[in-house]
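Researcher: Let's do a round of design. I'm pasting the structure tokens now; please hold your answer until I've finished.
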């Protein structure tokens, strides 16, 4: 689904107050998939965004050329190996004569940052890590509705899971069924590793589901969530099979 431009425009309004020429977002194997999706709608694992006041560009390889057109309104620049990905980005920056770039230093490796500085000695870099977080922390109506759906999916899946709970079932079986139900209900994925911890394992802060059999009368801690359109829900419940 292609996003509305409101999120992108909110970030641009804040960033370009700093007198920068462009925003650069590098996402290598999901290193910054959150900002990439927030600004462009693209959900692939490998890309770079270059955003100027007038142009919105995405660079990616042939695995994602069709997907970009389906998910984003950004202008596609095709990256083709064996040339390095960073060299492709650098060439585009030079061709556009960009001299001051805004980026999230917290979301790129030191080696990539050092390489950019080395290859672009005339460029100045502005860290906007906290700015992007500030903008994203204020949710619009569409985001709030999406988050509500993520919660509803998790809640309905939990109700389905309770229907199969019985003494002798394994924690791992319950987790698998819960995750299966969330995906049937429309979740893109689980929000995090599902925690199901019964009996003595309930004392573990992050007791991921194990092969332990759940016995009658044991308390069971469940901590789970659904990811829906990039937004996560996070719920926790405790129940017993029979009398504790």
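Researcher: That's everything. Go ahead.
Model: Designed sequence:
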């Amino acid at each position: 689904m292609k996003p509305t431009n409101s999120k992108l425009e909110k970030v641009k309004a804040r960033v370009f107050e700093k007198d920068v020429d462009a925003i650069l977002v590098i996402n290598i194997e999901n290193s910054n998939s959150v900002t990439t999706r927030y600004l462009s709608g693209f959900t692939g694992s490998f890309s770079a965004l270059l955003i100027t006041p007038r142009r919105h560009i995405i660079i990616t390889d042939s695995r994602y050329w069709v997907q970009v057109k389906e998910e984003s309104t950004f202008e596609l620049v095709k990256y083709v190996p064996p040339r390095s990905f960073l060299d492709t980005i650098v060439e585009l920056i030079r061709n556009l004569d960009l001299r001051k770039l805004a980026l999230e230093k917290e979301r790129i490796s030191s080696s990539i940052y050092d390489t950019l500085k080395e290859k672009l000695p005339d460029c100045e870099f502005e860290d906007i890590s906290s700015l992007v977080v500030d903008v994203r922390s204020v949710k619009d109506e569409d985001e709030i509705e999406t988050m509500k759906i993520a919660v509803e999916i998790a809640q309905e899946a939990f109700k389905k899971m309770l229907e199969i709970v019985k003494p002798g079932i394994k924690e791992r079986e319950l987790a698998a069924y819960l995750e299966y139900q969330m995906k049937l209900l429309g979740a893109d994925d689980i929000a995090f590793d599902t925690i199901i911890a019964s009996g003595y394992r309930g004392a573990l802060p992050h007791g991921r589901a194990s092969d332990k059999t759940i016995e009658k009368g044991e308390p069971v801690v469940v901590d789970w969530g659904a990811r829906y359109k990039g937004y996560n829900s996070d719920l926790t419940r405790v129940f017993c099979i029979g009398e504790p």
